[in-house]
Write a structure and sequence with these properties.
Length: about 400
Amino acid sequence: MMKALSILLLGTVFAHAELRVVTDFEGGNAEVVSLDQTAGRLRIMPALREGRGWPCWWFLRLEGTTVGQEITLEVQGQTKPFRPETILASSWCQPDQAVLSHDGKMWRQTSKAERTVDKVAVYRVQAEGPTLWLAWGPPFVPSTAETVLTQVKALLGDEAERFELSKTRDGRPVNGIRIGKADAARHVWVNARQHAWEAGGAWVGRGFAEWLASPEAKAFRARCCVHFIPIMDVDNVAVGAGGKESLPQDHNRDWSDAPYHPEVAAAQKHIAEIQATRGLDVFLDLHNPGPTDRAPFFFGPFGFERMTGQQRDNYQRWMDLAAAHITGPLKVEPKYRYATYVKTEEERARMSSGWARAHGGEGTISVTLETAWNTPHSTAENYMLVGAQLARALDAFLKEPRR
Ligand SMILES: [Zn+2]
């Protein structure tokens, strides 16, 4: 009887599976434009989360698929403005290769999208069972961060300490971890996801933290201390919003004397304390750049070319060590770029890297790593490799005394 029933049910599934788009989970986001059940053709655009920045991130679960079923996913830009009179260019939500998963855990890239004349990216994928997960890139949500922090703490015991940086405006915890001893001579602050959509930056952070927790980093942990926040904009990551250019300003334009976001205020307080007691050596902010940036690069300090003396030497030494260590497959550009698109001194001062420069010491360096997401190498594994390589560069950098 059971066997007969299951065969009957299977038959039903194969014949008339109803495709259904689900997004009510951590980081989920998709606005369904159309769904052709017969053709297995789904058109989406990133859903607009009012006031929560760029509609570029999307992440959905398609239910009702069958083994071997061909699915055509079409992604178009959000048609409504995310800020008054500003519609986001569709290229931000259309990676050459999106990602898919059959279990919601293991992700791999789709084949390359075809692009239509009306700016739609078309991804052709194949289901292997009743559920298919599709996303802009490998998702990294607050529960992923929790897993990383738990594992690193379990590996390191007394060599690490977890802490809650703050609660967000919506009451979610922003968690971090201190790796190494609080009274170490050398201190580093690293945060990722000030822009919620930039999931790749968080994967880089994961690789970075996991290297620091590895046996290879034992000596590093004995002399240095890293303060690491895997996700700053927890609220927008949790609801699948882009975060960038959110209202009144996003996290990386909020480093003023009166931050809007409590986690930014808390980070400022921690960093000021570090600087006042032991001194801050390095501030690192992890991001993802634009769709046409095909290699990782660092944003360096404005006015670097005019810098002289020790400060310039420190920044140059960092760049040289980063280029020597971040060697691929996502190979970092060997020269700094500068965020010249930020036009006013006032806005530049509200960026975290600028704030850290202004509130650090003579020996502090503050840089932003932008890891390319729109390449065949932009996978979770390769992002993590960039993170490990970044950590090795940091290890080398801190082998020389602060000057
Ligand atoms: Zn960013």
